[in-house]
Specification:
The chain has about 750 residues and is mainly beta. The chain contains 2 helices and 51 strands. About 25% of the residues are buried. GO terms for molecular function: transmembrane signaling receptor activity. Pfam families: V-set. It is found in: Membrane. One of its GO terms (cellular component) is plasma membrane.
């Protein structure tokens, strides 16, 4: 970029050099008309006239020569002197052309001498001796007046002011001057040019610096409308809204801050950010604003932090730019003014983009308090000679979390909201659900300082001394459960703090299963709720620890969500005895689940068999006792005998012993079953084929299980294959016992 100047009425030659593109087409155009009219010679090696300029394309040196034949004030402006590199690429040099003098025209009567003067501070018109007066032909219809042009060369700030021109008449003893045309000459100085860019939908802060004119009025205007609408703050030291921008005149630093609240494509263009130096002089910096359309920006992020804890906020900014982090001022919620955060600590991290064109910056806010809640922005800051601009492209909504409130159905719940002292006189309210959207569900009443409001089961109370307002809900129901926001009403409503009200229903779910079984448990929730399922003695333990479905790592647990029905299902396979216990299931509405897992069928069979074995062993001992009793009676034979081996029958002497079955039956209302032991005496003590046997009769009810017992007595160990007991006058020996239990699985 180069600055070029020339004198009004004179000629100006500009040589634009493109040595690497000697034969390529070259051009010059003016940016004020969007370079829509590109002037070029049309032919090479010849001077060609194009409007007020002449052009020559020197293909041997690669130079485009542009000659302004007679400079005028209208020729001043920004030009591009460029070359077409290829079908799709161009290269140009920017030229800023200024014309150094002013032409002032006056009409005076014919045959009168022109008089031209400038007012001093006392409004006395002093003759301008150094001015060059050049008369032009008369322009009135009757030719009774002529036009005089006054040219002031090498214009400086001293030349600004009020001029008068008129006719001077001399008489013998008198000269009188009639001043009939007042000319106010305002001198505007452009001190520099800066290029500014921002993302569509993002925020843009521009700081125009005028340190030598701290208290002077400042403004910004757009050149496309001739700077006819000059936006200024109106007052000093306060943010003021003016159309789509907000302005702040910082008289201490001599800075005008211009804040574009939401950039649009229509905001692109050339601006003047200026200051009024005196009544007739101004100084400005030219801003060329471009608006980018990037799907990546603006980026919106929601962060939540617990009071007293630390929160980390990450942002991406272009490389080689200074990082800027600011917070929207709650007192200017409507204007969304973003104030720089001085106390925040930024920690830079390595670049994370694929092309490494951006770097990641982390901002850490420690010991979070209610003052820290709100909207933050981060972006890139760029400094120029007379200007600083900040492009804010990432919005962060920081919300604070209070511990959840857990109560049982029918009880009362208190939601306690702390707030900053600057809000003590502001109305406050509770809001349930989606409080920042159109389908928000606010609780109807608000409360002001030192007052209490009550609506139905809800009571709001504001304690400005403690800096808290409390919402009390009595007679809790399932409909009361949910997410609650604490809100302060400013220009708009500020939701800054939230908690969860958890309602435990009085109804319980009792489940009894056996080891190895599967179970499915259905729990209620809403789409936005965090789903909870955990094992604990108290529901508050689950909520406090933040136990949710995502924290369970057991493969036997699986989950299915049916959002349309408001139900999610927890499936547990291959149940174990240690799975027994109390579970809490739901989201904001929680039910208690009592799960009992008993031992499996195989375990019950083992226990039953052990019991039966012990029982039969006792029966065997009893039989041995009876055998001793029968032997004694055999010494006194009875006439009633039965000959088992020969087929002759006689009455057998039988003794019965009832053995109670103390087992726990699986079939209810079943009476105890007696086991009968029958011992039959042999009819012939000398007959080895006449056995002594014991029979245990089967239960009449099959569900009681089938029990078999056989007891065989042998006299000698070598006769183990003979399952008989033979009586003689010798001693009876018990050689072995066999108990075979069988159990029905019904």
């Amino acid at each position: 970029m180069y600055k070029v100047s020339g004198s009004s009425g004179g000629g100006l030659m500009i040589k634009c050099e493109h040595p690497q593109y000697k034969t390529n087409p070259k051009y010059i155009c003016k940016e004020s008309d969007g370079c829509s009219e590109r002037k070029n010679p049309g032919v090479q090696g010849e001077w060609m006239e194009n409007g007020d300029v002449s052009l020559y394309d020197d293909t041997r040196a690669g130079v485009l020569m542009v000659f302004f034949r007679e400079l005028k004030a209208a020729d001043a402006g920004t030009y591009r002197c460029g070359v077409k590199v290829s079908d799709y690429t161009e290269s140009f040099t920017e030229l800023q052309l200024s014309v150094r003098h002013v032409n002032i025209t006056c009409q005076i009567p014919e045959e009168h001498e022109v008089h031209f003067c400038k007012e001093d501070d006392n409004h006395i018109c002093q003759t301008i001796s150094s001015s060059k007066v050049r008369e032009m032909s008369g322009s009135s219809e009757r030719n009774e007046e002529r036009v005089v042009t006054v040219s002031i060369s090498n214009v400086s700030v001293r030349d600004a002011g009020v001029y008068w021109c008129g006719a001077e008449t001399r008489d013998t003893y008198l000269t009188f001057i009639s001043l009939n045309t007042k000319v106010q000459l305002n001198l505007i100085t452009k001190v520099g040019v800066s290029r500014v860019s921002g993302s569509s939908g993002g925020r843009l802060m521009i700081k125009c610096e005028h340190p030598q004119y701290k208290t002077n009025p400042k403004y910004i205007c757009k050149e496309s409308d001739g700077c006819s609408e000059r936006k200024n703050s109106g007052v000093q030291g306060e943010w003021m809204e003016n159309g789509d921008v907000s302005l702040y005149d910082d008289t201490r630093a001599g800075v005008l801050m211009v804040f574009f609240r939401e950039l649009k494509a229509a905001d692109a263009g050339t601006y003047r950010c200026g200051v009024k130096v005196s009544d007739y002089t101004e100084s400005f910096t030219e801003l060329q604003l471009s608006v980018r359309h990037d799907e990546k920006y603006p980026n919106s992020v929601n962060e939540s932090a617990h009071i007293g804890k630390e929160v980390n906020i990450t942002c991406q900014i272009p490389e080689e730019h200074k990082f800027h982090f600011c917070k929207e001022d709650d007192n200017h919620t409507y204007n969304h003014i973003c104030q720089t955060i001085i106390s925040s600590k930024g920690t830079e991290m390595s670049g994370s983009s694929e092309r490494n064109e951006e770097r990641v910056v982390t901002v850490s806010i420690s010991n979070v308090s209610v003052r820290d809640a709100g909207v933050y922005w981060c972006g890139a800051e760029t400094r120029d000679t007379y200007l600083t601009f900040i492009s804010l492209n990432t919005k962060i909504q920081l919300n604070l979390i209070m511990p959840p409130v857990v109560r049982h159905e029918g009880e009362s719940a208190e939601i306690i909201c702390s707030y900053d002292s600057i809000y003590k006189s502001k109305p406050k309210s509770l809001c349930k659900g989606k409080c920042s959207t159109r389908d928000r569900n606010p609780l109807s009443e608000t409360v002001r300082e030192e007052k209490e409001t009550k609506t139905g089961r809800l009571t709001l109370n504001d304690d400005v001394t403690a800096g808290v307002f409390t919402g009390t809900i009595t007679g809790l129901t399932a409909e009361d459960a949910g997410k609650y926001w604490c809100a302060v009403t400013l220009e708009t409503e500020l939701n800054y703090l939230y908690t969860h009200l958890i309602v435990i229903m009085n109804e319980e779910l009792n489940l009894t299963k056996y080891e190895g079984d599967d179970v499915s448990i259905q729990c209620k929730h809403h789409d936005e709720d965090q789903k909870r399922f955990c094992k604990a003695h108290e529901a508050s333990m689950c909520v406090k620890d933040g136990v949710s479905l995502e924290t369970i790592r057991d493969d036997r647990f699986s989950f299915s969500d049916e959002a349309s029905t408001g139900v999610f299902t927890v499936n547990i396979t291959d149940l174990r005895e240690e799975d027994s216990g109390i579970y809490w299931c739901g989201a904001h509405v929680i039910i208690k689940v009592n799960l009992e897992v008993n031992k499996g069928v195989s375990g019950r069979i083992t226990v039953s068999c052990v019991c039966v074995t012990l029982l039969l062993m006792g029966a065997s001992v009893l039989l041995l006792y009876k055998l001793g009793y029968i032997k004694t009676r055999d010494q006194h034979p009875s006439p009633d005998r039965t000959e088992m081996s020969s087929g002759e029958a006689s009455h057998a002497a039988c003794d019965y012993e009832n053995i109670k079955d103390a087992r726990r039956h699986s079939v209810p209302d079943t009476e105890e079953t007696a086991l009968y032991s029958t011992v039959t005496h042999p009819t012939d003590s000398s007959d080895p084929n006449d056995p002594l046997y014991s029979t245990v009769q089967l239960p009449t009810n099959p569900s009681d299980g089938l029990l078999y017992a056989s007891v065989h007595f042998q006299k000698h160990e070598e006769s183990l294959s003979d399952a008989k007991v033979t009586f003689s006058n010798e001693e009876v020996y018990c050689n072995y016992t066999t108990v075979s239990p069988h159990m029905s699985l019904n």
